[in-house]
Amino acid sequence: MTIVTPPNTAQVAKMIDHTLLKPEATAADVEALVAEAVELGTYSVCVSPSMLPVGLPAGSELKVAAVCGFPSGKHSTEIKTAEAAGAVRNGADEIDMVIDIGAAKEGAFDRVEADIAAVRTAAPAPTVLKVIIESAALTDEEIVGACRAAVAAGADFVKTSTGFHPTGGATVHAVELMSRTVRDAGLAVKASGGVRTLKQAQSMIAAGATRLGVSGSRALLSASGPDVASGY
Fold it and tell me: What positions does UniProt annotate as the active site of this protein (predicted)?
């Protein structure tokens, strides 16, 4: 039997979108976020579109992500496309958009697909498009339908959660289901919402996530002893 060693803290850091989406966030908070992301070695920072452009240190490889239609997903498609296009103009490398969750609950996946496709057109490649489906609010059948809509619309990632919905955030089950649904089409999975410890992060990665949305990155990566030495 092959034993797969869980990723260590440095490897996990490279999968993290270091996130600040609190409505009370200030420019100084974003500046601190960037400094912390560089220090911790995270993949990106993720901020609200109103906080763009983000100043990065010279020579930094840190990516910038911005949310779209966040957190409810109930914005009109026209608003989402304008928001996404504006974010790209202001330096966003990646867009994390929220679907119309009610449309998914109704089984109206053609509407979900059209919404995603419009944002894809407004933020074409090489911009990375992640589609937040709010998995905790959906049944397994609805998760699969939303993921298939994201595939058909040309997205790059499906993402579990906003982290703001009362039903909760990422679960191993949802990540596994999402990964099974999209991996053959070449899409990746981002686990977000409630990922607070290294062990939780490792569990999400083992389930198929290749990106993590984390606001408390320092705490997650500050594990000591066996966690750092072995990845557990």
Answer: 96, 159, 190
